[in-house]
Amino acid sequence: MLRILLFLGTNIAVIALISVTFRLLGLDGILASNGVNLDLNALLIYSAVIGFSGSLISLFMSKFMAKKSMGVHLIEQPQTPDEAWLINTVQRQADAVGIKMPEVGIFEAGPNAFATGWNKNDALVAVSTGLLQTMNHDEVEAVLAHEISHVANGDMVTLALIQGVVNTFVVFFSRVIGHIVDRVVFKVERGHGPAFFIVSLVAQFVLGILASMIVMWFSRWREYRADAGGGALAGNHKMISALRRLKNASDPHPLPDEMAAFGISGAGLKELFASHPPLEDRIAALQAAQARSA
Predict the structure, then answer these.
(1) What are 60-70's pLDDT values in tens digits?
(2) Domain range annotation of the chain
(3) What is the tens place of the pLDDT at every residue in 168-226?
(4) Which listed residue (76, 103, 141, 147) is catalytic?
(5) Is 147 a catalytic residue?
(6) Which long-range contacts (CB under 8 A, 24 or more apart) does 87-90 make?
């Protein structure tokens, strides 16, 4: 509940900050003097509603969508020793970080894993059959610890918050740009002409690409934090061994785009748009931490 209140409070603070900033900079007067009668306060509210609606809906539907899209088989009553070991390991790690026991599942895919859910006490942790087949128990334990750290850190909520903020900026500034071009360049006096819709769409696309770099930067940063948490729970040597196993895999087995940011491994076409840092960088960070603690 505290994270949700923080989420809503941050939204209000962002809207208020932008509104006050524009007032102090006199942007309202500049636009009005050029015939741009744009209600910035109304546009801010409109942009925030659109920007946060998508991220909030995605957050609350995350577990359901993950189960459906990944074909996750939930372990309700363990049927094999491996399933019993998975349940016991996740329970022990959840107790260690002070969260409620997540749902645990298995999905058919190459070596990978993910965690999702709208809050840390209503989460899902899932591992792939490929992961269980290629890693030993120590390495799987480290992967589970990495995912539990994501849950305990509240990364799903924080990612939704950041996505909502950047969405708000993208919607807001794309509409401002479209409105200015429509009024100042094409001299449309009432309503909106075709230029507004065309320019707004183009601006939203361009700004959306730039905004995704911010979201992916945060995603990479939290991977280092989850690695550190996984090392603290399972042992740095186990976490390093698990990452090396992933690095040595001949096929990276990426998750679908909508789940990539929550997985144990993954990368984009370019480093700035990658949801995960390079595995060698993550291994180096853990080795440095291990050396400092030695």
Answers:
(1) 888 998 898 88
(2) 1-69+154-294
(3) 998 899 988 988 888 888 776 666 778 888 998 999 999 988 888 888 888 899 999 99
(4) 147
(5) yes
(6) 89/140, 89/141, 89/144, 90/125, 90/144, 90/148
